[in-house]
């Protein structure tokens, strides 16, 4: 099914399922502003940007590595999983405390595993440690420690195919949110420019009053003349910038154009970059491909808008590996 969906998107727009286009447009309108349905021919205006984004996101989703089997046993046997967690207990705690995972298994009694994205932060720092240099063991060797932390889980699927399809729609959702954030930023900028214009006008009137006075020293009048010219120039620039910003959002058509701008250029706001790093069991990066105790760890770096980048892989977690439900917290026991 995923392959068929990909074939429809990559270069074969005329065969794209209209239901997919309609669904994407509905997500966009719902996440940005329902009033956009009042714009004449809004579906036609969104059509090409939506098709472009669907094709682009589909390609991105295929670049996320996995799924990797993840459980306590994998921590001890799979270097990929071992490198991402500090202990096997961390894996069990993360999944056992996940409400979406528990709800998935509750609502899908026939599923023996759940497929979902595992996201985390990746950091590197310089450390000094022991390492062999030829036949000599040195204890002051500069090394790079690679650490993965702050793990969190994404949406749940019953199979890899279902999960990747869900991620396509999640990508459309993220672009819609980015479009809304851009519009909000423009509105905030417009408000700031209006305040700046008011302040400049007040300062300009004050300087003009001083400039017309007859009791000020001659050198002060010269300084005021320079300041007056500078203020006039700043006010003119502010007026021009404000006119441009206001025109952009003064109508729903202008609002829709900003949305189309994001979906016409999805690569500016959503990126997936496959990554690989070789580390040993201690989390030390190996820049020497011949190192026997190092394993190749693969992830994908995700960039969404201006938010911090994070790493992700797809994982498959078995129902049998679920730990006990998290206990009730003391502060929850109240009458």
Describe the structure.
The chain is an alpha+beta fold. It has two domains: 241 residues, no CATH class; 84 residues. Helix content is 51%, strand content 21%. The chain contains ten helices and six strands. Strands 1, 2, 3, 4, 5 and 6 form a six-stranded mixed β-sheet that branches. Strand 2 and strand 3 form a beta hairpin. The longest helix has 53 residues. It is extended, with a radius of gyration of 28 Å. The C terminus is likely disordered.
Short description:
The chain is built from ten helices and six strands. 51% of the residues lie in helices and 21% in strands. A hairpin with a 5-residue loop joins β5 and β6.
Summarize this structure as a short list of keywords or feature phrases:
335 residues, alpha+beta, 2 domains, 6-stranded mixed beta sheet, 10 helices, 6 strands, extended, disordered C terminus
Q: Mind sketching the topology for me?
A:
Layout lengths: L1 H8 L8 H15 L9 H20 L6 E2 L2 H6 L1 H6 L3 H9 L2 H9 L5 E21 L2 E18 L6 H53 L5 H32 L2 H13 L5 E11 L13 E11 L5 E9 L17
Parallel strand pairs: 1-6
Antiparallel strand pairs: 2-3, 2-6, 4-5, 5-6
């Amino acid at each position: 099914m995923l392959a068929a969906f990909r074939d429809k998107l990559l270069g074969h727009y005329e065969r794209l399922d209209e239901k997919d286009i309609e669904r994407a447009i509905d997500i966009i309108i719902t996440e940005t502003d329902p009033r956009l349905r009042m714009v004449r021919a809004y579906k036609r205006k969104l059509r090409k940007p939506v098709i472009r984004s669907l094709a682009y996101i589909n390609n991105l989703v295929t670049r996320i590595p996995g799924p990797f089997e993840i459980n306590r046993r994998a921590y001890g046997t799979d270097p990929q999983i071992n490198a991402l967690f500090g202990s096997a207990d961390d894996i069990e705690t993360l999944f056992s405390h996940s409400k979406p995972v528990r709800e998935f298994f509750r609502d899908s009694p026939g599923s023996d595993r759940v497929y979902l994205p595992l996201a985390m932060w990746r950091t590197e720092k310089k450390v000094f440690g022991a390492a062999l240099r030829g036949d000599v063991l040195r204890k002051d060797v500069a090394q790079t420690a690679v650490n993965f932390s702050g793990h969190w889980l994404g949406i749940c699927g019953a199979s890899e195919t279902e999960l990747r399809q869900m991620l396509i729609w999640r990508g459309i959702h993220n672009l819609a949110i980015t479009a809304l954030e851009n519009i909000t930023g423009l509105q905030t900028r417009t408000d700031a420019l209006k305040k700046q214009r008011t302040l400049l006008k007040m300062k300009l009137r004050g300087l003009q009053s001083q400039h017309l006075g007859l009791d000020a020293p001659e050198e002060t009048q010269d300084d005021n003349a320079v300041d007056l010219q500078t203020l006039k120039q700043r006010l003119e620039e502010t007026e021009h910038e404000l006119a441009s910003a206001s025109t952009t959002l003064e109508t729903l058509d202008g609002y829709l154009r900003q949305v189309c701008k994001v979906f016409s250029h999805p690569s500016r706001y959503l990126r997936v970059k496959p990554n690989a790093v070789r580390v040993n069991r201690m989390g030390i990066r190996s820049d020497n491909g011949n190192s026997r105790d190092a394993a190749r760890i693969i992830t994908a770096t995700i960039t969404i808008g201006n938010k911090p980048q994070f790493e992700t892989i797809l994982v498959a977690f078995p129902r049998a590996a679920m730990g006990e439900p998290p206990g009730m917290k003391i502060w929850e026991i109240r009458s």
